[in-house]
Predict the 3D structure of the following.
Amino acid sequence: MSQNDKYYMMRSLEKALFVAETMATETSWELKTLSAACSIPKGTLQRILRTYEDLGYVRQVHRGGAYALTLKFYKLGKQIISQSNLVTLVEPVIQKLRDQVNETVNLSTLSGIDMVVIHQKASNHALRMDSIIGTSFPAYLSASGKVFLAFLSEEKLRCFIKELRRLDTNIDTEKINLIYKEIEFARERGIGLDFEELFQGIRCIAAPVFDDSGEIIATISCSVPTVRLDRALSQTLLTEIPRAAAEASQLFESPIHSFRFNLEEITDMLVAVEPR
């Protein structure tokens, strides 16, 4: 049955939701540009935007100017995430890993060109890395992002790189080559590493979580203050994080993935005085 045959479809609601989905792809929209993007007459679009504005989902950047989504959609997304099957299933694995290593553990997934933290268990240490649920950070700089990108399809990875270059004019060919080098490293070893590229004084290790089709759906990572990251802790993390990610993948009946890396070599990299 096509959408046109579905008697229960509310066209006005369908249009309004399409407008919101389109707006989410840019920071702000001029009325004329949004009208063209949505193929909706300006008069109809204005009524949709004013309704959203009255309900708190849209704001006008300045009088007579562009429109932008508010964080009310984010709050809805946060509520959905907190109830999602992914978080519910993986939460015991995250909890167990945190208890084993007593370091902050994050469950993250890709959204656009950023990684988003969808669940976290903080360490008991006074000195620790905490992120608010919903916090986002550049995928190409983070351990989680590097390992997530490593297991995207070639088509999705090309789209990511294209969008990254469009949104960040500082990303030149040299940086793209470095990104691909990090991706290859993560793909071969099944782990992503962050050597204070994202936050000074914090290093991170991440591993992938796969679904039943073998596609990556999330990452499990630990963020650790560099001053606490000695050889013993590094080797514990390098053992337990991939093990936790594999356990989480099994919950989704993922095909078995086998990865190998030189434990001593990666440990040397993590405990090096100067970031790589």
